[in-house]
Amino acid sequence: MDQIEHKHLHINGLKLHVAEVGTGPIVVVFLHGFPEIWYSWRHQMIAVAKAEYRAIAPDWRGYGLSEQPPQIENASYLDLVDDLLAILDSLAIPKAFLVSKDFGVLPANLFTVLHPERVSGLITMGIPLFPPVPSAIRFDLLPKGFYVIRWQEPGRAEADFGRFDTKTVVRNIYILFCRSELQVAGDDQEIMDLVDPANPLPSWFTEEDLDAYSALYHNSGFSYPLQMPYRSWMREAIVKDAKIEVPAMLIMGEKDYALKFPGFEDSIRSGKVKEYAPDLEVVLMPEGIHFVQEQLPDEINQLLLNFVAKHI
């Protein structure tokens, strides 16, 4: 971890944090989801650098060590696309492999559609690729107590989280998202109430890891992370008749709760996902959960490096 360097870039009026390690013309950019941060790619970054490639992992605006944007209620996925383009330009990177996870898949997907000449290949984890239109995920078919629905309500998650310190909030979300069932609260519950304080963290997620995440979220708070992605779902990010034209790989854990989103598992297993991304390789990991890159780093690293080597 000590070899990972940190810098801030002036991007679209904000100071955005970027973690970087390795050198060379082949660049892999890692794009985090929630409750993740640049740190969630620590295992992959080191593996990429050892393979003599360059690894870059930004904190999205409003996350971790990056600056908070003004007027967060206007947050759009296009902001993240513009930030990613400006980061590549600032670092003089003409083209890169994109590796994305959770909601980070959405701006990576949109970036690849809008700027295919800047993308060597696209890897997604935790969410399959789908056209960038608001109807791609049928939230109306999910239970009303599901965490995504609850967190879309302004102020509700803030009040729920506010009962605990940052470390407890991160810990609870990690435990919840490690489950293979959907996280649904009853009418008399909030999402944080679904976690028994006696439940342990997974064995692959150490107290040191929790401390690192907690420090980063203590710095940024949760205001922007709740707005983006939950309250900015695909705002303005609509591209009709889009397709992913670059080589792509989808990595999903078969115990990932996200497979229970309406249509996700059927789209993957039926091959329908390849209608949108024709050059797509699908890898299903039998024991994998939502945080597959942290849970099974050696396997993910090998898949990642094989993909990059194949498409250089």
Radius of gyration: 18 Å
Overall strand count:
8
Question: Strand portion, in percent?
Answer: 15-25%
Report the order of strands and helices.
EEEHEHEHEHHHHHEHEHH
Oligomeric state of shown chains: single chain
Unreliable spans are none
Separate helix tally: 11
* Helical percentage: 25-40%
Q: How do the strands of the widest beta sheet line up side by side?
A: 1-2-4-3-5-6-7-8
The structure class reads alpha/beta
Mean pLDDT: 95
Shape: globular
Largest sheet: 8 strands, mixed
For the termini, the CA-CA separation is 26 Å
GO molecular function, one term: hydrolase activity
Keywords: Hydrolase
Family: Belongs to the AB hydrolase superfamily. Epoxide hydrolase family.
Organism: Aristolochia fimbriata (White veined hardy Dutchman's pipe vine)
What attributes does this structure have?
AB_hydrolase_1; AB hydrolase-1 domain-containing protein; 312 residues; hydrolase activity; alpha/beta; eight-stranded mixed sheet; AB_hydrolase_fold; 11 helices; hydrolase
Write the layout of secondary structure elements.
Blueprint: E1 5-11, E2 14-21, E3 27-31, H1 42-50, E4 54-58, H2 77-90, E5 96-101, H3 105-114, E6 119-125, H4 147-151, H5 156-161, H6 166-177, H7 207-220, H8 223-230, E7 248-253, H9 264-270, E8 280-285, H10 292-295, H11 297-311
Parallel strand pairs: 3-4, 3-5, 5-6, 6-7, 7-8
Antiparallel strand pairs: 1-2, 2-4
Domain AB hydrolase-1: 27-134
Keywords: Hydrolase
Protein name: AB hydrolase-1 domain-containing protein
Tell me about this structure.
It is a single chain. The protein is globular and about 55 Å long. Helix 2 (77-90) packs across helix 3 (105-114). The protein is an alpha/beta fold and 312 residues long. Helix content is 33%, strand content 16%. The chain is built from 11 helices and 8 strands. The chain has an 8-stranded mixed β-sheet, with helices on both faces.
